[in-house]
Design a protein that fits this description.
With 254 residues, the protein is of the alpha/beta class. The chain has one domain: Spore Coat Polysaccharide Biosynthesis Protein SpsA, Chain A, CATH 3.90.550.10. The chain is built from 8 helices and 13 strands. Strands 1, 4, 5, 6, 8, 9, 10, 11 and 12 form a 9-stranded mixed sheet that branches. A hairpin with a 2-residue loop joins β9 and β10. α2 packs across α5 and α4 packs across α7. The protein starts with a strand and ends with a helix.
């Protein structure tokens, strides 16, 4: 039986929201009276992923305290939940470096052969993770993707686009011209991908998770996609997104 754990990257500044006056770490911002990170943790735990590594950074004492409060509430109804915390003290190295810290720690702790990796600012239902886990195969990375592309989902500079063919990811990036689906910010990752992350960490100061995927493709790792056309998700980048997110969680009873 595969041993799964979770990795949530929530170290970033959330610059686009900061520019509109929000000062909390983005994962702590409330949507319908519940923080973004609380929705994500809830989805992990409902899918029996109770060992979760968090990579913190911006205002980490605030976020750490918030996560400890969330854990305390869950422990009232769950026998055992393990949260592990890491600090990215080099935020300018971006979320690729956060993934390096997290995946390396998971290997050291030996808490998961496969990792559900989530960005810390995306909303999605628990069915999203359930379906992702059902796609468990021999892929080194399975990317949760959305094949329904429209203007609401394609935001210049913030949407990661994917060109996929026959379940394989051909290329990925924010600025590619040819694409047929978009990245939803959640992934199923084998621990083997740590070698790719380690190589990038050695040769580049600044790198993103997208760079990890690109190098994995270049080195012939198996990078596949799984379309989630029937399961709702939402990415929060701007102030207006928060108002739309309120409607999103109400509509989908989250």
């Amino acid at each position: 039986m595969t041993n799964f754990c979770g990795l949530i990257l929530c170290a970033g500044y959330g610059n686009r929201l900061q520019q509109t006056g929000y000062k909390l770490p983005k994962p702590m911002i409330a949507v319908n009276k519940k923080s973004i990170i609380n929705y994500i943790v809830d989805n992990f735990i409902k899918n029996d992923i109770t060992k979760i590594v968090f990579v913190l950074g911006y205002k980490e004492p605030l976020l750490l305290n918030h996560l400890e409060q969330i854990k305390k509430e869950y422990l009232k109804s769950h026998e055992k939940i393990d949260f592990f915390y890491l600090i990215n003290n080099n935020l300018e190295r971006e979320n690729g470096y956060s993934s390096f810290l997290g995946l390396n720690q998971i290997t050291v702790l030996n808490i998961g052969e496969k990792i559900v990796l989530s960005m810390g600012d995306h909303l999605y239902s628990q069915k999203f993770i359930s379906k992702l886990l059902s796609k468990d195969d021999n892929s080194d990375i399975v990317i949760g993707t959305d094949p329904f592309i429209n203007d609401d989902k394609i935001v210049n500079g913030s949407t990661t686009k994917i060109l996929g063919k026959k379940n394989k990811v051909i290329t990925i990036g924010k600025n590619i011209n040819e694409f047929n689906r978009i990245d939803t910010g959640i992934f199923l990752v084998k621990s083997t991908i740590l070698r790719v992350v380690q190589e990038l960490e050695q040769r580049q100061f600044r790198f993103g998770w997208t760079d990890v995927v690109k190098l994995g493709i270049e080195k012939k790792y198996t990078i596949t996609f799984a379309d989630f056309e029937d399961i709702p998700w939402f990415n929060i980048n701007y102030k207006n997104d928060l108002f739309r997110a309120e409607e999103f969680v109400k509509k989908h009873n989250m």
